[in-house]
Every structure is written in structure tokens, then in C-alpha cells.
Specification:
- With about 240 residues, the protein is α/β, with parallel strands linked by helices.
- It has one domain (about 10-230): P-loop containing nucleotide triphosphate hydrolases (Rossmann fold), CATH 3.40.50.300.
- The protein is built from eight helices and nine strands.
- The chain has a nine-stranded mixed sheet, sandwiched between helices.
- The relative contact order is 0.20.
């Protein structure tokens, strides 16, 4: 199986018997306003990352992760979106803005772009797809699953970890069940409270194919882009 890979949160690593397994494909399922990017950034500090953005522009993503400037881990951002479609409130809610260039939600060409990017992965690291929603709304379930299978294969071959950022919404993507079925690990993240400048989350790990599920809730805190567990609490 190989040496475990850190999540970037030591207490969480201990709960997972050392962290994530090389080759794991993980789905982070969360609402748009959870600041889940901070959790992804913690993983990006641990190893180099290929970041595939399906909705927001590459420059917007790079701006988000300016906090990683002091990290030795390389970050490559590829924009796999094309065209402009900002006609519904779902997209506005995901991006928080009406200024981002996004792809048509029925453009299967995006799947081709993701597939081609996946084939270029040669070194171990993280591969982030953010968000998966546009891919899950494409017209061809088989083509979408083939992209996920190709990603999983490259993760196993290179000892990498894949992160599928799955945003929840009142209108779930038609292929969300496919995503959760293929994923080796599922993290469910919910906002619980905001107090004293800290954002408090509840994390559950109902699926962990090559390890133990964590069914009890783990309380995560975000403070100045750092994600941690308050070890003084009974978690």
C-alpha cells in the first residue's frame, strides 16, 4: 500500500491511522459557503498539486492560494473551462461572483480536457478537480466514469491523491451518485458555528475503502487559513 500521505491536519492523520493512502480518490462533499478551500490548501502544503478548475478562472484560483507562497510545494493550475455561462443562480452561488469565465454545463469537451490533463500526470502529488459539478452535469455518464477511472489509474500509478470538490445544492448534479460510488474516500463537511473569528466545521468520513470510516463527527477549526483540530476538546 505504501507510506501514508498526510492530510495536513495531524490530529486527522492520527484518526486515519497515518493519513491517506497513495492512490486514493477522495470526494469532499460540502455546501458552497464552508471555506472548504482552506482544507484543500492544507493538503496542498504537503505535496505538489495539479489543480484543474472547471468553473473559475485560473487567475482566480491562483489568487485564492496566495497563502501557499511560503510553501515549497509546487502548484500548477489548469483551466479546463471554456466559454461563458453565468445565467443561473447556481453558478453565482458557487463562485460568489459574476465575473468568472466558466464552461457550458453540457459541453462534454470539458471531459476531454480533464482526461488529457490526467494523462500527463507523471509525479506523485495531489490532483484537485474543483468543482466536480460541471462534469457531473455533462450528457454522457459513461464518458464521465471513464474520466474518473482514468484519474484513479494515474493516482495508483504515481502514488498520488485525488480530490474531487463536490458542492451540494438544491439541484444535485445527475451524476453525483457516480462520483460517490467511484470515490475511495468520502468526506462530508458542514459549518457548525462561527465564533471569535474562527469557523467551526463538522467533518464525517462515512466511506474509507482502504481504511476505517470515521462515523463520529470531528470538529475542525479554521483560523487565518489554517485548519486544525482543537485537541483540548473531547472529539
Amino acid at each position: 500500500m505504501g507510506e501514508k500521505l498526510s492530510t495536513g491536519v495531524p490530529t486527522l492523520d492520527r484518526r486515519l491511522n497515518g493519513g491517506l493512502n497513495p492512490g486514493d480518490l477522495m470526494a469532499i462533499v460540502t455546501a458552497p459557503a464552508t471555506q472548504s478551500h482552506a482544507l484543500i490548501a492544507q493538503m496542498m502544503r504537503e505535496r505538489s498539486t495539479l489543480y484543474l478548475t472547471t468553473l473559475r478562472s485560473a487567475s482566480a484560483i491562483e489568487s485564492d492560494f496566495d497563502v501557499l507562497a511560503d510553501s515549497e510545494s509546487a502548484v500548477i493550475v489548469e483551466d479546463v473551462a471554456s466559454g461563458v455561462s453565468m445565467e443561473n443562480e447556481f453558478l453565482h452561488e458557487l463562485t460568489g461572483s459574476r465575473t468568472y469565465s466558466v464552461a457550458s454545463l453540457t459541453d462534454d469537451g470539458m471531459l476531454d480536457d480533464v482526461y488529457e490533463a490526467v494523462q500527463r500526470i507523471d509525479d506523485p502529488g495531489n490532483v484537485v478537480v474543483d468543482p466536480t459539478n460541471p462534469l457531473e452535469r455533462t450528457a454522457d455518464r459513461k464518458a464521465y466514469q471513464e474520466v474518473l477511472d482514468a484519474l484513479k489509474t494515474r493516482l495508483m500509478e504515481t502514488g498520488s491523491v485525488g480530490v474531487l470538490h463536490c458542492i451540494t445544492h438544491d439541484d444535485p448534479p445527475v451524476f453525483r451518485e457516480t462520483t460517490l460510488m467511484v470515490a475511495d474516500v468520502v468526506w462530508e463537511l458542514d459549518v457548525r458555528a462561527v465564533a471569535n473569528g474562527d469557523v467551526e466545521f463538522q467533518l464525517r468520513i462515512p466511506k474509507n475503502r482502504r481504511g476505517n470510516a470515521v462515523l463520529e463527527e470531528i470538529t475542525l477549526l479554521i483560523d487565518q487559513q489554517r485548519v486544525y483540530v482543537d485537541d483540548s476538546r473531547n472529539i
